[in-house]
Design a protein that fits this description.
The complex is a heterodimer of chains A (112) and B (111). Chain A is mainly beta and 112 residues long. Chain A is built from no helices and eleven strands. In chain A, strand 9 and strand 10 (102-103) form a beta hairpin. Chain A is globular. Chain B is mostly beta strands. Chain B has no helices and eleven strands. Chain B has strands spanning 4-6, 11-14, 19-25, 32-38, 45-50, 55-57, 60-65, 70-75, 84-91, 100-101, 105-110. In chain B, strands 2, 4, 5, 9, 10 and 11 form a six-stranded mixed β-sheet that branches. A five-stranded antiparallel β-sheet of chain B has the order 1-3-8-7-6, with no helix packed on it. In chain B, strand 6 and strand 7 (60-65) form a beta hairpin. Chain B is globular. The chains are: A mainly beta (112), B mainly beta (111). The A-B interface holds A 31, 33, 42-43, 45, 48, 50, 58, 88, 90, 94, 96-106, 108 and B 31-32, 34, 41-46, 49, 87, 89, 91, 96-99, 101-104.
């Protein structure tokens, strides 16, 4: 079955380190999204992509970057991790055309 | 005003009860609407899409009211396993395929 997977599921790192979270989908969806979810803030969009070589900033993009070199993957990089980036991160993908997004299991990231 | 608003709850209901949630949206040109379910510390999962004519899936019924700009979710015969947070999501007409999420409504079904 087609699916969307995130790795790692949990990560602990130190401030100042570079961290990359992986997102891989096998639905051949053009659209991919990264969110963070914190208590009191709901889901907030970090970056998104509508296809290979396309990336766009979302609501809370500062300190994050993405790249889209193929259809299946949209890795999220924290250039220099900060404690404020401790959060749960969800990746999602959609077919487009007003179709819903489907989410990965999430990555729980702690920055000490 | 937020683009998509929900009553955060919690809604505490006994098993077997019928419960309804509303979700208001501000962009009158919005075209696509969805309900997601999110369990604690898990990913949001699509519960159902909301069509103009309304739609039903077992105990769950979703309705769209364009005139008043809200969508609703009705759950009949509530089960303990329905306890979760319910998120509404909207694709505004001019936003490509970006979803705007409400903050979620928490439902707790008690024995």
């Amino acid at each position: 079955d087609a699916e969307i997977t995130q790795s790692p599921r949990h990560k602990i790192t130190e401030t100042g380190r570079q961290v990359t979270l992986a997102c891989h989908q096998t639905w051949n969806h053009n659209n991919m999204f990264w969110y963070r979810q914190d208590l009191g803030h709901g889901l907030r969009l970090i970056h998104y992509s509508y296809g290979v070589q396309d990336t766009n900033k979302g609501e809370v993009s500062d300190g994050y970057s993405v790249s889209r070199s193929n259809t299946e993957d949209l890795p999220l990089t924290l250039e220099s991790a900060a404690s404020s980036q401790t959060s749960v991160y969800f990746c999602a993908s959609s077919k487009g055309g007003g179709q819903p997004q489907h989410f990965g299991d999430g990555t729980r990231l702690s920055i000490l | 005003r937020k683009e998509v608003e929900q009553d955060p709850g919690p809604f505490n209901v006994p098993e077997g009860a019928t419960v309804a949630f509303n979700c208001t949206y501000s962009n009158s040109a919005s075209q696509s609407f969805f309900w997601y379910r999110q369990d604690c510390r898990k990913e949001p999962k699509l519960l159902m899409s909301v069509y103009s004519s309304g739609n039903e899936d077992g105990r769950f019924t979703a309705q769209l009211n364009r005139a008043s700009q809200y969508i609703s979710l009705l759950i009949r015969d509530s089960k303990l396993s329905d306890s979760a947070t319910y998120l509404c999501a909207v694709i505004p007409n001019n936003a490509g395929n970006m979803l705007t999420f409400g903050g979620g409504t928490r439902l707790m079904v008690k024995p």
